[in-house]
Every structure is written in structure tokens, then in C-alpha cells.
Amino acid sequence: MKGAESVAAAVQRAKTVVATSHVNPDGDGVGSLLAVTILLSGLGKKVYPSLPEPWKYPPQYEFLPGRESLLAPESLPGNCDVFIALDCSNLSRMEPLEQVFERAGLTVNIDHHEDNTRFADVNYVDPAASSTAELVYRVCEAASWALDGRAATCLYAGLVTDTGRFQHRNTTPSAFVLAAKLAEAGADVHGVAREIYESQSLQYVRLLGTALKRAQRLENLRLVYSYITQSDLEETGATLAEAEDLIDYLRRVKGAEVVALFKELPDGTVRVSLRSGDEVEVASIARVLGGGGHAMAAGYTSEKDLEGSIGELLERLRDRHA
Ligand code: 5GP
Ligand code: MN
Q1: Is 281 helix (H, G, I), strand (E, B) or coil?
Q2: How far apart are CA 81 and CA 75, in angstroms?
Q3: What is the residue with the minimal CA distance to atom 22 of ligand 1?
Q4: Fewer CB within 10 Å, N or C, the chain?
Q5: How is 130-193 classified by DSSP, letter by letter?
Q6: What is the domain range of residue 134?
Q7: Measured between alpha carbons, how far apart are the two ends of the chain, in Å?
Q8: Residues 287, 165 share a domain
Q9: Are 262 and 306 in contact (CB under 8 A)?
């Protein structure tokens, strides 16, 4: 059975479903999760959607249909017929939900990360897909489920954000075809653009200013980077959860083959986001440093402080150039 059909068959008889995405979820994670919740609830199943700890829902996705159905991990049932992981490359990215995962009757993994560890009973992993949202759509088609405007809006949000508004390399012909199909199904195309890209807080726009002012270019490493500290967050009143697209502003610099954004966390560790301009494969850099992701968009957490984590990445990049 092909991937999409095997997922459709796996959930067909399920009465109770727990679904989740990865920690620090992005637009594709929450969009796919809420779409699956709407689709399966529409079939009469009891769906429990949740997100890993730390339980933070990005404010730019508050508008998505079904957002109010999300449950904190402690409110989940102890077991379920089927557990669905979306856009999540490995089990450690869904802590503490792997406990529910282990007790599920059947587990399903729908993802487009190349480094996905195929951790479930049914693994539908396609790194050539633009987004996990695209894979959810294929399941929906394979199973002949009715797609309403609410679920279409959620999938469209995933598609738009993971392709960088149809600009990244994963913007395949099928990504455009999917956009048209979702618009036809009633996705709120303009609303998604307004809510995600033109409804940001003034606090976040000021944080963006702080990060942009600090941007550095190291021409020999073809690197552009910047950072955000905890005191930046206090001073501006912004949160890291709303800063998902901040790194895209650093990509604007000509000659930036690697773009890095260092984000200091409350415990002093640093979340590092990496993007590739065009040529450099950043997933392998992230993997060496304990993370992972896509060839062109990856990340990791450094146990070092801000200065130390910047030094650590520069050292890695120098080694590559040596
Ligand atoms: P971001 O920079 O937006 O946090 O992450 C970029 C991409 O890399 C996303 O697809 C995300 O799932 C992946 N990623 C980020 N951090 C990690 C990590 O620590 N481990 C793994 N396996 N993937 C990561
Ligand atoms: Mn994704």
C-alpha cells in the first residue's frame, strides 16, 4: 500500500485519536495538526490534539480554525486507538507525549523531514513534499474525506509558511497545484496572509529592529547572523514564539549562503536556527551540533552561552572551509 493509503487505512476504524506535532511548532506543524483534527472529528472520531512541552502556541496562528480544541499534555487520555505525529522527525521532539505514543494501539508518522527516524508503525515520510500539509492533503484525497474551508485554511497556512510564501526550493509544481485546490475548497487565502504576516505585534516589530541592527556578515564564511537575548525580550515585550519569520529578514543580504539566528532561552541555553541561501546543506551542520532539519532549514540547541554558541558555529563553518 502506498503511504497516503496506508495512513487512510490505519485511521479508518479508530474511535479515539491523539495527534501532535513537534516542540516549538511552526505553521506547518500547527496547520497540519488542526487540519487532521477537523478532518477526523468530521468523520465522528474523538480527536485529542496536543503539543509537546514547553506548551507554547505561536500567537500568529491563533486565528486558525480549531485552535480552541488543543489540549495540554496532562489533559490527554492515557491511551488511544491511533496516535498521529505530524511534521515531527523523531520521538524526542514530542516530549512528554511519547508516553501516550507508547500506549497507543497503532502509531502513525506523517512528515517531510529527510532525517525522520521512521519511529511509528505506519510511516508516511516524503522528503520531496513541500510540507507536511501537502501529505495530509494526499491522505485526505486517498481516503476521499470531505475537505471543508476550515481544514483547507489550516493546510494552506502550513503550505504558505513552509514554502516561505512560495519562494523556497520546496516550492514545487505540486505546491502550486495544492494551493489552487485548497483555495477551491474554501481556504481563506487573504485571511492567512493578513493574520500571519500583517498582524504581528508592535513589540515583535521592535525586536526585529534590534536583531537587524546587530546583523553581522562574515564574508570569508559567507555567513550572516544575529542574536536575541532574554533582556531583548524583556525590553521589547516580544516572545520567541512570535519570532518564527525573523530569520527570513537576514536572508535578504547578498552573499548570505548560511544564515544563523541565535536565540537565548530562559535557562541560558541557545536555540540556533540555520537557513541556507542556495548552496550550503545546513541540516548536516545542525546534525553535528545535536539537531537536524531540512537541507535548507535546520536547527539545534546549544548548551553553551550566547557567545560560546556563536563561536561554536563559526568554528564549524571554518572547518568546512579549511
Ligand atoms: P527552526 O529554525 O524554524 O526552529 O527549524 C528549522 C527546521 O529544522 C524545522 O523543520 C525543524 O523541524 C528542524 N529542527 C529545528 N531544530 C531541530 C532539532 O533540534 N532537531 C531536529 N531533528 N530538527 C530540528
Ligand atoms: Mn514542515
Answers
A1: coil
A2: 17
A3: 292
A4: C
A5: S-HHHHHHHHHHHTT----HHHHHHHHHHHHHHTTTTTSTT--HHHHHHHHHHHHTT--HHHHH
A6: 3-197
A7: 47
A8: no
A9: yes
Q: Which three cell numbers stand for residue 32?
A: 497540519
Per-residue model confidence as pLDDT tens digits over 268-318: 999 999 999 888 999 999 999 999 999 999 999 999 999 999 999 999 999
Burial class (CB in 10 A: 0-12, 13-18, 19+), 165: middle
Name which residue sits closest to atom 7 of ligand 1, judged by CA: 298
Q: What is the mean pLDDT of residues 120-146?
A: 97
What dihedral do alpha carbons 217, 218, 224, 230 form, nearest 10°? -80
Q: Are residues 92 and 190 in the same domain?
A: yes
Q: Which of 197, 230, 246 is the last residue of a domain?
A: 197
Three-state SS for 259?
strand
Distance of alpha carbon 279 from alpha carbon 267, whole angstroms: 34
Q: Residue 63: how many CB atoms within 10 A of its CB?
A: 16
Q: Say which residue the cell 501537502 belongs to.
A: 134
pLDDT digits (tens, 9 = 90+) for 30-44: 999 999 999 999 999
CA dihedral angle for residue 203, residue 206, residue 211, residue 212, rounded to 10 degrees: 150
Which residues, chain by chain, have CB under 5 Å from ion ligand 2?
Answer: 28, 87, 132, 162
The separation between CA 153 and the C-alpha centre of its own chain, rounded to angstroms, equals 16
Specify the number of domains making up the chain.
2
Residues 291 and 316 in one domain: yes
49 pocket-lining for ligand 1 (C-beta < 6 Å): no
Query: 198-202: long-range contacts at Cβ-Cβ below 8 A with a sequence spacing of 24 or more?
Result: 199/60, 199/63, 200/60, 200/242, 201/59, 201/237, 201/238, 201/242
Q: Which ligand is nearest to the CA of 260?
A: 1
Count of CB atoms within 10 A of residue 270's CB?
A: 25
Among 177, 197, 217, which residue terminates a domain? 197
